[in-house]
Design brief:
The structure is a homodimer of 464-residue chains. By secondary structure, chain A is an alpha/beta fold. Helix content of chain A is 27%, strand content 20%. Chains A and B meet through helix 2, strand 2, strand 4, strand 17 and strand 19 of A and helix 2, strand 2, strand 4, strand 17 and strand 19 of B.
Chain lengths: 464, 464
């Protein structure tokens, strides 16, 4: 059943007829939206990055945007879609932004419980003749980018081999049987991407394109070429004009991040002395040694998010006057926070800030460009006092979780706490997240809104 | 040495002369500022309260304000004031707002290291003939209100008996010897309040007024009466017009809070089964039972923060046309979060939202009123997923800290995590905090600013 999808499509069809009859052309109203998403980039992540990159009194570029709003992140229960959940994942939160529909965790462009496809910004743009680009440091099939072009019941179903009882991680089984083309579904996420007609798609995730298309003996990558995509896999290939459709896949899955903790260290448990066995307030505690952030040796010659974004902007404007929609995601602010790697998150937030410089520069010469910067959901990391506020008491006070003590370039120590669970990977949190914009957002965006309203803002800006 | 104080005072004196000579009168430019501070009210606290009070899709009154900004909270090291600290306490953060000067934790209206007094908004207002009110649910001598009228080296020096090697809590010794009047200081905080000339001061903290004034045999409370204060201690006494100066002290220290967890419960440690002794991922885990919030039986007949604020507004406007500055603090959002009492914080954030209704109603009939709502620093609480995002794995994943699982009126479960330390009281965090305003702040307040700039905004609005 694709009821919702069909209903909205019919409305658009009528609108398009009307627009045609009164002579509105796309070129006449050329407007662009650049939606920059920091995955997990809540105010804590921004503060952590600011403290390190420009100092506590400094301003990141995103801090200097003229408009700030806050976003209520909404999620519902798959079994009872009337019931609120208070913490999102990247699939349901990106679906909110891409479709305006609140759904349950793990879902990509489909409704909670009823599994109906809902029209997304890529489809709406294409129906209006507007070009579309997607850029990310994750797999291009990962939840955030996928929500802008795909419809599938589970985010893990990223390629044709991951559709039926697929074990994504140890014990985590995903199943999208109902999305198989054999069952009148749209197939896996990578298959949907190569059919989507997205003009530019740049990121990681090559491993999701090497399997054979469902019911075929050609790979998804070959199908991409058949669909008119130029495929690039190396940074050097990004340079110059490409024309036509461009698919860049620069790593097997998530692209390596720019930075790591000194010697590859991440957050660690404070160590308590022997006496602590008898009572938590006996003995002493040693906090992890402070560390600097350093280049990640695995980063190699990855293209930066800024370079990919510049390429995407060039491709989307080859014909000069047409509007476009471009989504750019710095994905590993989140992924590094899951792994308690504060330096990794900081470097990826720096990547996002560099992208914003690219976008603002573009908007200088293309003033009808609305730039939005937001996060999809909150994350675990918190800045703790360097010394506990109870330090006068001679007791071993420490975080019950894990901490990274980062030496900041301004000569101080920043303690970053990860304490949402005792597992190998931290949890998201349910805090409202920031939404920032350039001057085109001023007066257009309320000071507080729900995440699905971001969809409406983009849609209204591009199509109204 | 009070160098800074004297320098600014001299400037003001010249300004006042100039203003007098060109005929500027205070009544001609009647403008009011109501600064509402939620202690520890970061975006997580707001989200937690919103989810409970109006549902995840609802809007608090503060969510509906037209202007949102974010505030960089700045703190420096007492021993090396050039060095940043990344987490504030309520003393140094309120000093930022009240004086525009960044100082070290624990300091009230004095500089880090050099211990110089810096002029505050109360003193500036009084020099301009502008009335001043202070309302709080904490002791009126606690760090946040104190920073607006007092100058002392340590926030704990709240009364004449707490000035020299005073043990505030077990093991926590405060000492303000240099602030003794005998040492040419200004004395304790309560002594400074009764000398301050603040027009209305309402809150808790009676115990800080019963001791004798330094070098005298009359109590601070008697001195308040001698200084022209009408002293009230019961809610019923708040009603009606008072005229003159008003001091309300409704509890011995912090006023009791409105709400508590069911049966007085707070956040609790998840319980793991026997097998967990051998490995954290063996066995099973039982999360604390969900609970509702309920009335706190100790609240008694405390005046609400809204009622105190209404009284303050009435007193500040008895002569109709003069400007005023009113600071209102909901103090126990923070204090309850320290104690891991999510329901307590929610109830006190509700109190703040009710105050905002009072302020907005006042501004309806007094349109030259700038209303600011902000927090002084971040706090520990985080919203975690109801079920871990790794629930498909059959392992006992749980917060390493303590959690409160709150049954929300919209029929869901909100898990609030407290995991900044293993001590009896949680830590503050270093996140940037929100600043909201009514329409008079639109175009006047940048989308991101440092906390001392709040001082400048208030000063410029009232005096420029």
């Amino acid at each position: 059943m694709k009821y919702r999808f069909i209903k909205i499509t019919a409305g658009l069809f009528i609108w398009t007829l009307l627009a045609g009859s009164i002579g509105i052309s796309n070129t006449a109203m050329a407007k662009n939206v650049i939606l920059i998403i920091g995955d997990g980039m809540d105010d804590h992540q921004i503060t952590i990055a600011r403290n390190y990159l420009v100092g506590s009194r400094g301003k990141l570029l995103l801090d200097q945007l003229p408009m700030r709003s806050a976003v209520q992140v909404l999620t519902v229960d798959e079994k009872n879609p009337q019931r609120a959940l208070y913490v999102a994942d990247s699939a349901n939160s990106a679906t909110s932004m891409a479709t305006g529909v609140v759904t349950s965790p793990g879902r990509i462009g489909t409704t909670a419980g009823s599994d109906q496809d809902v029209i997304n910004l890529v489809e709406l743009s294409q129906r209006q003749g507007i070009k579309v680009g997607l850029v990310t440091t994750s797999s291009i099939t990962d939840a955030t980018p996928a929500s802008f072009y795909a419809h599938v019941s589970e985010r893990g179903c990223e390629n044709p081999n991951a559709m039926v009882e697929y074990e994504k991680y140890a014990g985590i089984i995903v199943d999208c049987s109902q999305d198989l083309k054999a069952n009148e579904g749209l197939g896996s996420i990578s298959e949907q991407l190569v059919k989507s007609g997205v003009d530019v798609a740049l990121g990681g995730g090559m491993k999701h394109f090497t399997a054979a298309m469902e019911g075929s003996n050609i790979s998804v990558l070959t199908e991409a070429v058949n669909q008119g995509y130029k495929v690039v896999t190396q940074m050097d290939e990004l340079k110059g004009q490409h024309g036509g459709k461009l698919l860049g896949l620069f790593s097997p899955s998530t692209m390596p991040v720019r930075w790591q903790g000194q010697g590859g260290r991440k957050a660690e448990n404070p160590e308590t002395s022997f006496m602590n066995i008898f009572h938590p307030m006996l003995g002493s505690v040693i906090y992890p040694e402070p560390m600097r952030c350093e280049d990640n040796p695995d980063y190699g010659d990855m293209p930066s998010l800024a370079l990919m974004s510049e390429t995407a902007l060039a491709e989307l404007t080859t014909d000069g006057t047409k509007s476009f929609f471009l989504m750019i995601e710095s994905a590993s602010i989140d992924k590094q926070a899951h792994e308690r790697k504060a330096c990794g998150s900081i470097g990826e937030l720096q990547q996002l800030d560099e992208v914003l410089a690219v976008a603002l520069n573009f908007a200088n010469s293309h003033p009808e460009t609305l730039i939005l910067v937001t996060a999809d959901h909150g994350h675990a990391a918190q800045v703790l006092p360097e010394r506990t506020i109870y330090e006068a008491l001679d007791v071993p006070i420490h975080s019950p979780g894990q901490v990274a003590r980062i030496k900041t370039p301004e000569g101080a120590i920043m303690t970053v706490n990860y304490a949402t669970n005792n597992f190998v990977s931290e949890e998201h949190t349910g805090v409202n997240v920031p939404l920032l914009s350039n001057s085109n957002g001023v007066g257009r965006i309320p000071a507080m809104l729900t995440q699905p309203e971001i969809f409406t803002i983009v849609k209204d800006y591009l199509f109204d």
